[in-house]
Amino acid sequence: MALDNNSLVVVCGADDNYAIPLTVTLYSAVANLEKGCTLYLYIIDGGITKQSKQRIQRVLNVEHINLHLKWLSASSFTSLSHIKTPDWVSVATYLRLLIPDILPDHFDKAIYLDSDLLVKGNLKDLWNQEMGQHALLACSDLVIPYVSCNLGIMNYKELGLAPNSPYFNAGVLVMNLPRWREEQISQKIFRYFSEYPEYVRMGDQEGLNAILANNWGKLNPKWNVIAHILDYDNWIDSPFKQEIRPIKDDLLHKPYIIHFAGGEKPWKIGCEHPAQLEWISYLKASRWFQPIESLVWFTKWYIRYTPWRLKVLIRTLIFNLGLGKVWESMRTYVHQS
């Protein structure tokens, strides 16, 4: 079955701990998808409860697109049980490597999305990107631009890779499924994990980069603007200062997909990402919560958020006035008291 021009395939997954973030990812993607699209959505079930599934299905019950939703069984985990993962990486993230095997053979392409995203662009535009002969399309990683970087591929020389070989972030991918199947790319990545377990620090993202080095196409970085972009206020220390500086404002203010990578999770108090309240707005609009439940949850959240945000604004003002040392002295005094 060939897909028509209005169809696209999207795959994502989570366990129940990430059911709400996954919902916001999917709701924002669907809300910004053009009218009349047919979306084949596959959700890899890493332990999502029946109640959460019902809520997700209710959220995605929209009129402007034709949705075909299918849940993929977590039984696929058994084939990953032998993989040694870093402490901060769940084995569930490795399921994206099985996408070419678990999707129907008649699909030639699929978009993979992490569950901690806010989609602001039209995914049909991402779907229509020219694939060429690349095994996948992805965005360069703002923190790890090259395989030789500190968190890149430790054994890149042993693999015969040039130090300036580009490195991508695996949170948003467009996969060329026939190439993956023909070249058994997933199997090669699993073999890499078995042969070099002592080098793997970034989980499946590292395996993807090791095997697909120089075999992937660059997407516009606006399709995966990771939270770490905020770490480089003046771009002096950014490894991407030359490439990113001309489009810095676009990345910050007109992203297609915001990726809350690392510790900047918008559902947590303490997140300083400027899109946090926008994420909260999408959660509210999604109708994940029932009316009374929604009132209680958001009231509690804002009661915790408001004093914390006030503290951040005061701290920012103090530093802008050049009184940062005074702030740090006050913090030290409070902690010691």
Helix content: 25-40%
Amino-to-carboxy terminus distance: 70 Å
Average the pLDDT over all residues and give the rounded result: 86
Q: Output the radius of gyration.
A: 21 Å
SS-based class: alpha/beta
| Elements, N to C (H/E) | EHEHEHEEHEEHHHEEHHEHHH
Note down, in words, how this protein is organized:
The chain has 337 residues and is α/β, with parallel strands linked by helices. It has helices at residues 19-31, 50-59, 99-102, 123-127, 177-183, 185-195, 203-212, 241-244, 248-253, 276-286, 291-320, 324-336, and strands spanning 7-14, 38-45, 66-72, 109-113, 117-119, 136-140, 168-176, 216-218, 225-226, 257-259. It has a 7-stranded mixed beta sheet, sandwiched between helices. A 3-stranded mixed beta sheet has the order 5-10-9. Helix 1 (19-31) packs parallel to helix 2, helix 1 crosses helix 10 (276-286) and helix 6 packs across helix 7. The chain is globular. 36% of the residues are buried. The mean pLDDT is 86.
